[in-house]
């Protein structure tokens, strides 16, 4: 359980408790200086815990933790308590007492005068989900649909071209907005997501290259057209592969749970089945 000024874990102090496999209960204070393990420091923080006031017990597959805090000059603890649960069966151990990544996080806001509280899934929930949904739809769904149109509907010329261009352009615009949301979110949360960010920038670069390739495409009769086609198609495939991987990785980082992964997985399955059916149909026609 942490106490934060803005609902974010980074920068807050937390009381963490666990009951190890041998039955011993441990309660420690941590300073949450960042998202990497080395920045989560045990026996540090700005909470003044009353001596001998901590306790933790395991009963009926549940943990019950208690502690008491001192206040100076009636100064109350931060009004944004945080609650999270670590991985099952993974416990901090001596000498460093490193914490594992939490699985569930809830941010609350308490009015200590009235006793009323509200809860949310965490800070900047709308921004987080906007980042995820826009990128999922833009890069991870529309780009695939646009590629399907280009591969299997060229007999409907020029309708396929305008449809392909419109879908890809819409996906590109939504993807850019989603990436901007991601940069804003990273700065506000001070999150360390270098791998996710790096892959996202790589995807954005590939998307920009595709737009430039579209603007510089040679005529159908030009000798360079076959090389342009090879480049355009393969860059698109690479973009889609990295996009799918980064979406699942982003869902993992966001702690959204299996529901989001399953939902996007179902969409990918539908698109994959569609591709298989269209591919078989094209082979039969040949």
Automatic annotation (TrEMBL):
Pfam families: Cytochrom_B561. Residues 1-86 form the DOMON domain. Its main location: membrane. GO terms for cellular component: membrane. Keywords: Electron transport, Membrane, Signal, Transmembrane, Transmembrane helix, Transport. The chain crosses the membrane at residues 133-153, 160-185, 197-216, 237-255, 261-280. The keyword Transcription does not apply. It comes from the Eukaryota. It is found in: Membrane. Residues 94-286 form the Cytochrome b561 domain. PROSITE patterns: CYTOCHROME_B561 (PS50939), DOMON (PS50836). InterPro entries: Cyt_b561/ferric_Rdtase_TM, DOMON_domain, UCP037471. This is Cytochrome b561 and DOMON domain-containing protein.
